[in-house]
C-alpha cells in the first residue's frame, strides 16, 4: 500500500536514469512541480529537445556516482537488471526511488494527476492499472476545468480573511464550509467586498 503525501520538491534534486518515453513523462511531471532534474542516459528521445526548463543532461550509462547526492531517483531504463540495481542501492541508502518496471522495489510511485493552480487531485491504483488511473484523470479533468485555478485562489484569499476576522472556531468553520458551495462569480463578489 502507498500512503498519499504532498511533497514540497521545489529545488530538490531529482535524478532520472533513462532517456525514453517513460523518463520523459516523469521528467515533465517533476519540472511541473519545480524540482531540479538531472537525467543520465545512453540515449535521449527527441522530445527532450523541447523542454524549456533547466535540466542537466548526462549522456552516459548509469553509474552509482550519478545518484549519490540525489534524494529522489527514478530508474527508467529498459534494462530490468540496471533498474533493479538502482532500486536496491537507493533503498539501502535512504533515498526515495521509483523503479518504473518494478513496483515491489519502488518506495514511491507517480500517480496520475489533475492540477489546477493549487488544487491537486491525484489518482493511484497501487500499480494494478495505470490505464485506469489515466482514464479517471481524464474524467476529473472535465469536471474540474481550468476555472478551478481562480476558484481555489479566491477560496484561499477569503479563507485567510475569515481566519483573521473570526476568532470563534465553530463560527469560522461554518463560514469556511459554506464557501465551497458558492460559484466562482459569487466568490468574486465576496472577494471584492473583503478587499475593497
Ligand atoms: C499514472 C502514470 C503516471 C506517470 O507515469 O506519469 C503511471 N503510468 C502511466 C501510464 C501507463 N503506464 C503503462 C501504460 C500501458 C498500459 C497499462 O499497463 O495499463 C500506461 C497507459 C498509457 O501509456 O496509456 C505501463 C506500465 N506502468 C507501469 C509498468 C511496470 C509494471 O507494471 O511493473 C508498466 C509496463 C507494463 C508492461 O510490462 O507492459 C508501472 C507504473 N505506472 C505508474 C504510473 C505507477 C502506478 C500508477 C498506479 O498506481 O495507477 C507504476 C507502478 C510505477 C510508476 O511509474 O510510478 C501514467 C498515466 C499518466 C496519465 O495519463 O496521467
Ligand atoms: N512506469 C510506467 O509508467 C511505464 C510505462 C511503460 C513502460 N514501462 C517500463 O519502463 C521501461 C522504460 O520504458 P521506455 O518506453 O521509456 O523505454 P525506452 O526504450 O524508450 O527507453 C529506455 C531508455 O533507457 C536508456 N538506457 C538503457 N540502458 C541504460 C543504462 N545502462 N544507463 C543509462 N541509460 C540506459 C536508453 O538509452 C533509453 O533512453 C520499459 O522497459 C517498461 O518496462 C513503465
Automatic annotation (TrEMBL):
Gene Ontology terms describing biological process: siroheme biosynthetic process
First-level EC class: oxidoreductase
EC number: 1.3.1.76
Record keywords, A-Z: NAD, Oxidoreductase, Porphyrin biosynthesis
GO molecular function, one term: ferrochelatase activity
Enzymatic reactions: precorrin-2 + NAD(+) = sirohydrochlorin + NADH + 2 H(+)
Superkingdom of the source species: Bacteria
Pfam families attached to this UniProt entry: NAD_binding_7, Sirohm_synth_M
Metabolic or biological pathway: Porphyrin-containing compound metabolism; siroheme biosynthesis; sirohydrochlorin from precorrin-2: step 1/1
Transmembrane segments: none
Domain Siroheme synthase central: 116-142
Coiled-coil residues: none
SUPFAM superfamilies documented for this protein: NAD(P)-binding Rossmann-fold domains, Siroheme synthase middle domains-like
Name recorded for this polypeptide: precorrin-2 dehydrogenase
Species in which this protein is naturally found: Romboutsia maritimum
Native organism taxonomy: Bacteria, Bacillati, Bacillota, Clostridia, Peptostreptococcales
Amino acid at each position: 500500500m502507498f500512503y498519499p503525501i504532498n511533497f514540497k520538491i521545489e529545488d530538490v534534486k531529482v535524478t532520472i536514469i533513462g532517456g525514453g518515453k517513460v523518463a520523459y513523462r516523469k521528467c515533465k511531471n517533476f519540472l511541473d512541480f519545480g524540482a531540479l532534474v538531472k537525467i543520465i542516459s545512453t540515449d535521449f528521445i527527441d522530445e527532450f529537445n523541447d523542454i524549456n526548463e533547466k535540466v542537466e543532461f548526462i549522456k552516459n550509462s548509469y553509474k552509482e556516482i550519478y545518484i549519490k547526492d540525489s534524494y529522489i531517483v527514478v530508474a527508467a531504463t529498459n534494462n530490468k537488471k540496471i533498474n533493479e540495481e538502482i532500486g536496491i542501492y537507493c533503498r539501502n541508502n535512504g533515498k526515495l526511488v521509483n523503479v518504473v518496471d518494478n513496483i515491489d522495489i519502488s518506495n514511491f510511485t507517480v500517480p496520475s494527476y489533475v492540477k489546477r493552480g493549487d488544487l491537486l487531485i491525484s489518482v493511484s491504483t497501487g500499480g494494478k492499472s495505470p490505464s485506469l488511473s489515466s482514464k479517471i484523470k481524464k474524467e476529473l479533468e472535465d469536471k474540474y476545468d481550468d476555472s478551478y485555478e481562480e476558484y481555489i485562489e479566491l477560496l484561499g484569499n477569503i479563507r485567510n480573511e475569515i481566519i483573521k476576522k473570526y476568532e470563534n472556531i465553530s463560527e469560522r468553520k461554518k463560514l469556511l464550509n459554506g464557501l465551497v458551495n458558492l460559484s466562482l462569480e459569487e466568490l468574486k463578489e465576496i472577494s471584492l467586498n473583503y478587499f475593497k
